[in-house]
Amino acid sequence: MKNEKYAICNECGSKFLKSSSAMESLCPECASIIYGYPNCNHIFKNGRCIHCYWDGSRSDYIKHCLNINNKEKNNVDK
Ligand SMILES: [Zn+2]
Ligand SMILES: [Zn+2]
After folding, report:
1. How many helices (H) and strands (E) does the chain have?
2. Ligand 2 mean position to 16 CA, how many Å?
3. Distance 20 CA to ligand 2 centre (A)
4. Which residues neighbour 65 within 8 Å (Cβ) at sequence distance 6 or greater?
5. Ligand 1 centroid to 58 CA: how many Å?
6. Higher pLDDT residue, 59 or 75?
């Protein structure tokens, strides 16, 4: 029997701990940015988060989403 503790995120391509994410195919970081699920409080050690195992990868789409969020915040401030 395979014990599939880890999965590969469909979005950023990083390995992540399945139990740490609300979604089976997305790491907590991508699930939070795309779908608004609670994100992990990442603590990085040796290039990976000790909680969710995310390696800090961001896809172009995630970067794009983050840019839009930042722009919206800036507009609200004005
Ligand atoms: Zn991801
Ligand atoms: Zn994390």
Report:
1. 2, 4
2. 8
3. 8
4. 33, 34
5. 7
6. 59
Q: Which of 35, 34, 37, 22 is nearest to 59 (CA)?
A: 34
Average pLDDT score over residue span 54-73: 92
Q: Give the closest ligand to the alpha carbon of residue 38.
A: 2
35-52 per-position pLDDT tens digit:
999 999 999 999 999 999
**Cα-to-centroid distance, 50 and ligand 2 (Å):** 7
CA 78 – ligand 1 centroid, Å: 32
Name the token pair of 75. Answer: 């507009």
The residue behind tokens 């000790």 is 50
Specify the pTM. 0.85
φ and ψ at residue 53, rounded to 5 degrees: 75, 5
